[in-house]
């Protein structure tokens, strides 16, 4: 078992928080992901501490990447990253060969990619939007994700076995154009953690910590806007993009300088493709602001 060890001060704080059943402000550094409930953080830390891979599943802009970065910070472990797309290939994952020189002698050198780097250093590997990759690409790393923690590098024929501490955090947005369902063999290599939208008082704290907006009345209005957008997404009236927390934080920042309605227009509305959705969001903005 390749286990991570949390720093002792984090272990102590975590055990105290579990007993008290409250939130974890001491654990989360400035700008980190504040989970909407205890279980989300406890379960992620528990799985990683046991050497298991985790799959963060949730809507766009819910904070999955920030969650991964926060976990990396908590474990005081660097994190190599892969951003998946339909163009993802073996070189993007594992590395590539290139010409180099030793003195005047020309030679072929292998430059390791994020998977090989994370395995050899025994650190986190973050795979973002894992379901954007072509189905034939990801099986390359099946052996990396299961108990073997091993891969034969097709470019060098080297058998690479991960150092202690290596594990994988992946993120997935389901139902988006260009995504494909994860096959069961791949999904079964992960512990799945649902990452919901941050709402209510927690969203208010997030705005206060991570944006330049300090007008409490205005912050409350943005929290109400977010709640209305999330409700509309759940009712099928809007796409998930409209309720992105990342976009909402951008709107809060812009509203310090320009009017809130223009901030919402630039940060949220102009990203939407359908005129019906654009009008819906602007009507909400008109009502609140």
Automatic annotation (TrEMBL):
Gene3D superfamilies from the entry? P-loop containing nucleotide triphosphate hydrolases (3.40.50.300)
Q: Where is the AAA+ ATPase domain?
A: 50-199
SUPFAM superfamilies attached to this UniProt entry: P-loop containing nucleoside triphosphate hydrolases
The record's section on Pfam families has: AAA_5
InterPro entries for this protein: AAA+_ATPase, ATPase_dyneun-rel_AAA, CbbQ/NirQ/NorQ/GpvN, P-loop_NTPase
Any one GO MF term held by the record is: ATP hydrolysis activity
Q: Give the protein name, as stated in the record.
A: AAA+ ATPase domain-containing protein
Its lineage reads:
Bacteria, Bacillati, Bacillota, Bacilli, Bacillales
């Amino acid at each position: 078992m390749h286990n991570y060890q949390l720093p002792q001060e984090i272990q102590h704080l975590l055990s105290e928080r579990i007993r008290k059943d409250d939130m974890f402000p001491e654990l989360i550094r400035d700008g980190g992901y504040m989970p909407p409930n205890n279980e989300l953080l406890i379960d992620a830390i528990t799985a990683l501490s046991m050497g298991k891979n985790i799959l963060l599943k949730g809507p766009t802009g819910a904070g999955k990447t920030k969650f991964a970065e926060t976990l990396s910070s908590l474990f005081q472990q660097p994190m190599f990253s892969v951003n998946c797309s339909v163009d993802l290939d073996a070189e993007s994952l594992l590395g590539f060969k290139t010409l180099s020189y030793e003195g005047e002698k020309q030679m072929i050198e292998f430059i390791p990619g994020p998977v090989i780097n994370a395995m050899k250093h025994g650190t986190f590997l973050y795979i973002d939007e894992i379901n954007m990759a072509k189905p034939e690409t990801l099986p390359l790393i099946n052996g990396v994700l299961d108990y073997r923690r091993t891969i034969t590098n097709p470019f060098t024929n080297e058998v690479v076995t991960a150092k202690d501490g290596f594990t994988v955090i992946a993120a997935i947005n389901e139902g988006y154009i260009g995504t494909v369902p994860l096959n069961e063999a791949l999904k079964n290599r992960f512990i799945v953690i649902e990452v919901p939208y941050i709402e209510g008082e927690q969203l208010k704290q997030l705005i206060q910590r991570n944006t330049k907006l300090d007008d409490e009345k205005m912050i409350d209005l943005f929290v109400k806007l977010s709640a209305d957008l999330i409700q509309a997404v759940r009712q099928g009236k809007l796409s998930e993009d409209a309720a992105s927390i990342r976009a909402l934080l951008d709107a809060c920042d812009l509203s310090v300088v320009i009017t809130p309605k223009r901030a919402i227009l630039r940060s949220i509305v102009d990203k939407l493709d359908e005129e019906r959705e654009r009008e819906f969001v602007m009507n909400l903005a008109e009502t609140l602001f």
